[in-house]
Amino acid sequence: MVSNKKLKIFILLFSLVSAMFSYYVWQVFKTPNFRVEANQPFELFIPEKATYEIVLDTLKKHDLVRDQLSFRFLAKVLNYPEKIRPGRYIIHSEMGNWELLRKLRNGRQDAYKVVINNFRLKEDMAGRIANQTAYDSAAIYAILDSTELMQQWGFNSETSPAIFVPNTYEVNWTTSFPEFLEKMNKAYVKFWTSERKSQAEKLGLTPVQVSILASIVYGESKNSKEQARVAGVYWNRLQINMPLQADPTVVFAWKDFTIKRVTGKYTALNSPYNTYRNTGLPPGPISVVPSDVIDRVLNLEHHQFLYFCAKEDFSENHSFAVTYKEHMQNAANYQKALDQRNIQ
User: Hey, where are the domains in the chain?
Assistant: First the structure.
């Protein structure tokens, strides 16, 4: 009878100790252990060649770890001090030691999401990419504006914007900007399939020239229903060596996107981007355009139009003309509308 009582007490104590141990293990592994606001995750940056002590100092500096003992204990168990991986790691409020330490040990970085869309000037491009990453805008611009550096991907200082295919890309903090450009070049090569290259060749254009023409078309019209027709006008002009006379190229040359009315004052500018003074395409794109605009250029309308002008109703539509006389009438109607609205 006594032995049975002792056995029951032993079982009770064992169960209690086991429960306490299990609870402690649960706390060590799973319980949220970091002082992070639910709506403000913390960015932990671990530089190259960082040591375990540097990681601990960073966590301590920001007073992130609630239970230091459990964190260090599990770090030792997981052999993390010998497996420090550099990178950018996001710590969420609900994270426990196990989740974070495995993430750090395995180098599962949290990438930046970089949105590439309608950039115009390389300065703007550099600034907006820098705002989305840890890159320095001046360093980005220096590379994009260097023919020597860009030629490894087949571009120069003027054509460098063409390397960007609009999309959202993921890039790690430890990825250098040249490595990022390598990623962009892979996307570029993937985009320019044999079919697209064949379409460009039939138009007598290279892929980069198509990007240049698409940037002009996009500058002239955001109306997707007209872009193939506008592209056809410029292609017709290229065939007869007629100046493109594209207002967006003049605006780009002045770097003044507040210009509403391109007059003789602006077209007198001596610039390779002034398509009123120069024949052929300008030396580089005047913006990075959506991929579907490039496809509309590749599938441009074949017609007889040599001229087009914005309609006087200020819609997204244009009036197209075969003859100069017809065009001048369309232009007069539009100029009159501008005057009535006092647009200079």
Answer: 21-105, 112-191, 194-303
**Options 3.30.1490, 2.20.25, 1.20.58, 1.10.3470; CATH of 21-105:** 3.30.1490
Q: What is the pLDDT of residues 109-153, one digit of tens each?
A: 999 999 998 889 999 999 999 999 999 999 999 999 999 999 999
Sign of CA dihedral 147, 153, 159, 164: negative
The dihedral of CA 76, 79, 80, 82: what is its sign? Answer: positive
pLDDT at 341: 75
Question: From the CB of residue 128, how many other CB atoms can be counted at a distance below 10 Å?
Answer: 17
Partners of residue 89 on adjacent β-strands: 44
Write out the two tokens for 327. Answer: 């065009």
Taking the model in full, what pTM does it have?
A: 0.84
- Indicate the burial class of 144 (C-beta count within 10 angstroms; 0-12, 13-18, 19 or more): buried
Joined tokens for residue 208:
């980069």
User: Structure tokens of 337?
Assistant: 């509308």
State the sign of the Cα–Cα–Cα–Cα dihedral 264, 268, 269, 275: positive
Least confident of 3-7, 95-99, 101-105, 274-278: 3-7
Instruction: For residue range 166-212, list pLDDT tens digits in order.
Output: 999 999 999 999 999 999 999 999 999 999 999 999 999 999 999 99
DSSP strand pairing (42-46 vs 87-91)? antiparallel
* CA distance from start to end of the chain: 108
> pLDDT tens-digit profile of 21-51?
444 554 555 588 999 998 899 999 999 999 9
Going by C-beta distance under 8 Å and a sequence separation of 6 or more, which residues neighbour residue 36? 42, 64, 91, 92, 93, 95
Distance separating alpha carbons of residues 205 and 213, to the nearest angstrom: 10
Tokens standing for residue 233: 């006008």
**CA separation for the pair 298, 197 (Å, rounded):** 9
